[in-house]
Amino acid sequence: MTSTTATSFGPLAGPGRETIRLAMQRLWLTGRILPAGAHLIVQHVFRSEEEKPLEVIYSFPLPRDAALRAFRITGDGFEVHSDLIETEAAIKAYERGIAEGSLAALARQYGDGVVNLTVGNVRPGETVTVRLELLAGVESHDDGFRFRFPFTLAPAYHARMKAARVSEDEAEVELPSDEFGDMLLPPFRKDAAGLHEVGFDLSVLHQLPFEEIGSPSHSIRVKPDGMAPARVALAAEKDVPNRDLVLDVRFKEIAAQVLAGPTTEGVRSFAAIIPSTLFGASPKTARRTVIVLDRSGSMQGAPIEQARKAIDACLAVLGEDDSFGLVAFSNDVESLHPTLLPVSSENREKARAFLGQVTAAGGTVLAAGFQEAARMLNGTGGDILILTDGQVAGTEQILAQARATNIRLFCLGIASASQDRFLSLLARETGGVSRFVTARERVDLAAVDLFASMGQPVASGLKTSGNVQPEPPSAVFAGNPVVLFGEFSEGSQMLDLAWDGGQMSLPVPAGDGETGQTVRLLQGSRLITDWESRYPAEQALAPLEKRKQSRVAERLSTLSRTYGLASREMSLVAVVKRAGDRAGQIPTTRVVPVGMPQDVKFDAYFAVPPPVLAAMAPRGCVMEATQAVYTPKPEVRQSFGLAGFRGIFRKSHTPDLDAKVESTDDVLLDLASQLEPDGGMPGQDVADRAARSVAVLLAFVAAGRTLTTGAFRSHVARLVRYLKSLNREILDVAIRAAGDGRVPPGDWLAIARTASVPWSQVEKALTV
Asked: Which of 49, 196, 207, 517 has the greatest count of CB atoms below 10 A from its CB?
């Protein structure tokens, strides 16, 4: 691989590694975010002050459910729009433009949703701007949504990858060409401070009033304007590309939203977001659950500590009729027990001991983890919860392995750099649900909240009127709305839904043309994403004539033409003929470097060789993931021996979390983990258990965690069932509080924390 370390904006060129004054100087995100997805423009500004023509490649991951639509390339005296054509033809057009000395640009998608944006024949002193248009999905919640956009990417684990530390602060990753073709990954810089600037200025459209717009990733300025679109922008003048942008939007009420409008195709396209609360409540049935914990190096520190606490609290949701298993994976797999265990105090203690000895190190062999969990469920039904950063390559193969298990996967992703696209597919393609949190958010609460959605769905067998694509989900889970894309003839006014045991109708508004067109494009990007996930590498890299026999290739080509969106079968290309173009000049190729994601240690990903060997080693020492051994590149392999030159593919987060400060959520998590298998709190006798259970229930409710809101809703439900089983009228006050939120006076959080709660104190409060 060619090295491209940068000291300012540009990489280094030639044997002497002098600075090339080449910049992707700026990456700026604008566009509209809707509750069903986003229509975005990404501005890339390139400038060269070098003395010869250059070809620059920027590699980036697509967000969830995303597809490229077009780009516009501008410069001094020119503006050209891209064409969407077959990938082979686009490559030939680009190469022909380069050979003729013209400015050329190509946006091509590869496996794992990685895009190479290539701009060639940038003249010395020339500034070129590429405005890339794309559609992207959002993570939908009953009360709002989360929007995530990748400003960087992290190195992803693959069994046959090679990682090369080429200098003190730069490293490269190479993936096998027989699986990934000629895809180029960027050089990874230890510090992103010297790289291109990033920022954003976005509009958020809505039908429901806002409760809150926030960001766990960036400082933002929010300018709400009643029911008009809210403007959300970066608070600072600019930022560095070392983490994803994450925006959270919450509404004041939970209600269905239908976005619609006419399209140029003569139909009315719509997107419906239907909260799970409109389908009813989940029936109580026995649960069979396996929790799969990623113990790779990237989970070091706070993430794995929080994950341990979260798993303990999740197991407290399970009752005496339930069963569970635990699996931990990195390069290998370890289980608490070869089969599922019944829920008991003794088995939960065994689970705590198992989690206590789990340490984070090694790579991320994700498929082995969920395959072991599937084996434990033995084809008799159940759910799998995966806690992982998802930093893996070759995701199409992993998705095929996941579908083969025929078991629902629920995924919680943890990272500053996104694998949101992959994990959302992993859950959706198996009938589950996904969530993704940043490295600086609370993993434990997110895991408990997701676990509360698992188990028996609130609805199944969903059917709809209209032409809905993709098909409706097979099941609806608590806390997660149904999102439908479709179209109607102009005469239709209602969207009818029916499911096992219920039905509803929603009015479809006339809407406006811009919304209708955006919704139609979001539908297309979602369909393309789904089909891309089913495109195996051996087919995607085959010659064109052979690919024409592939059902997936044919479908992708049809979808690209129907919706005007790029895919692996069709790419975007533009050639700009300028005065003074000189044919035959071959530009020097450079790849734009990216910074390591925030809270990820560069030295843990790319281990430093022992000092003696480091001094001896030629530049270009490669670490092969399959052997976990440093080996030199072929051209320098004979320069020194391999003795003692060993390392492990390790990654680590250092989240900015102060574990010494105990918050309300810390206390609630600890209380939640103490629930007994029958749903009550431990105690010396029935009265003691009842008193503690009432105090803990009221502590949850006083903190805003009820039967229907908050991450602990399943724990609240278990406490309610336990208190109902005692069949004492005085307990009805506490039971009602779980539903209506009205709590008797008292510092219930402090009371709940005491080892023994006097029944007389609880009785007095409930009587008052």
From this structure: 196
